[in-house]
Amino acid sequence: MTLTHLNARGEAHMVDVADKQETRREATASGRIHMLPQTLALLVEGGLPKGDVLATARIAGIQAAKRTPELIPLCHALALSKVTVDFDLDHDNACVKVKATCRLNGRTGVEMEALTAVSVACLTLYDMCKAVDKGMTIDAIQLEEKSGGRSGDFSRASERAALPTESPAVSDESGVSDATVTASKAGDVPSVRVRFLAELRERVGQESLTVPVASLANADILSVKRALRERDDRYAALDEPRILMAHNQTLASDATRVEAGDEVAFFPPVTGG
Amino acid sequence: MTWEVRVQEPAFDVGIEQARWFGTRHDVGAIVSFTGLVRDFNERPDVEALTLEHFPGMTEKALADIARQASERWQLEGIGIIHRVGRLLPGDVIVLVSVASAHRRDAFEACDFVMDYLKTRAPFWKKEHTASGDYWVSERQSDRDDADRWEQQ
């Protein structure tokens, strides 16, 4: 196996594809953006300030696929015959799954186009929703399938079944074996998401972070405070009696139980009205 | 009972909102509205602007819960709450609470209650911008005392 974008001297070069046979090429890539459940609810209702989120992200993904060679240095400009971008709203895991498929009859593969479409669609989802949720994360951007061309066909599901011990960067798509699902769960550290608001956010100098459940002495908010205190002295501010806390957006106390996937917010007394 | 809670950046017209909520109702005998405005003096003189922050999701839930509590304590036909966030200037409307009832006493008391609870329980924070610098507004004991009045009844 060699890296085709390096020449004999190890320098980057664009592969000459003039003599390659034209074949039908197709590639599918996927990715995810995780957000707060209420952000996803707003997205579904169309209640976000920038308007129709999914339609905008779809156009962004299609446009990005067409402009891939402007972004990836050694990528050929291709006349794509088809680009689709689809979204799957996963309410159980509070995320949007993005899937892009690119196709053409040509001499090079279209996996970079599919991966770029997914990446830019995810970035556009972030841009469209960031007014209400700045802690969103994008992950698991990956090639799912590729067909046509000399390097042969690729399918993540079958690849994983053949190599069950490989690193756990696998998708959540249905149809994967039990072994890959287990590996995927082991890859994500079960954590509690912590947010800081208003004056407290400015004092600790950050908006959000995650605390692994495994690092908690007990599964309660007091232990979350202790774990943060051990990380850095600036989190001593959380122990001030005036600081309030919310568990999944309901006012809570030190004794409130937490589990993986929960959100804990800390903030000063309120001053609205 | 009809009710609505909204948190938004844009300015709004108090009269239009109130007409939209209760304009077609013939069972409403009284509407009491509170409109909160940005003052140009507070902890320091010469307040030039203020920035209001909220906790998206939780703030809306808290406002809805306050409206629900008011409707359980008094005989009401409707409650509307709009609270603005973002950067506001002296004279701008910050908040509107409108309470509709068949009779005035319920409307007066419920409106007072909603504002007291909003000021002490809904996650909003004000940062004031003055000629001598910016600062986060401190909570007031008097606001807490006002809200406590309703607990004792």
What strand line-up does the widest sheet of chain B have?
Answer: 1-4-6-2
By CATH reckoning, the class of chain B would read Alpha Beta
Over the alpha carbons, how many angstroms does the gyration radius of chain B reach?
16 Å
Helix content estimate of chain A = 25-40%
Number of alpha- plus pi-helical segments of chain A: 8
Element order, helices and strands of chain A? EHHHEEHEEHHEHEHEEE
Can you name the CATH architecture of chain B?
Alpha-Beta Complex
End-to-end distance of chain A: 66 Å
Spans of chain B with pLDDT under 50 lasting ≥5 residues? none
Flag low-confidence runs of chain A.
Answer: 163-187
Strand content of chain A: 25-35%
| Biggest beta sheet attributes of chain B | 4 strands, mixed
What class do helices, strands and sheet pairing of chain A give?
Answer: alpha+beta
Summed up, what is this model?
The complex is a heterodimer of chains A (273) and B (153). By secondary structure, chain A is an alpha+beta fold.
Task: Please explain how this structure is put together.
Chain A is an alpha+beta fold. Chain A is built from eight helices and ten strands. Chain A has helices at residues 37-45, 53-66, 68-71, 111-129, 156-162, 178-187, 198-204, 221-231; strands spanning 23-34, 82-90, 95-106, 137-147, 154-155, 191-196, 208-212, 244-247, 250-252, 263-267. In chain A, strand 8 and strand 9 (250-252) form a beta hairpin. Chain A is elongated, with a radius of gyration of 23 Å. The termini of chain A are far apart. By secondary structure, chain B is an alpha+beta fold. Chain B has a single domain (2-151), classed as Molybdopterin biosynthesis MoaE subunit (Aldehyde Oxidoreductase, domain 3, Alpha-Beta Complex). A four-stranded mixed sheet of chain B has the order 1-4-6-2, sandwiched between helices. Chain B starts with a strand and ends with a helix. The chains are: A alpha+beta (273), B alpha+beta (153).
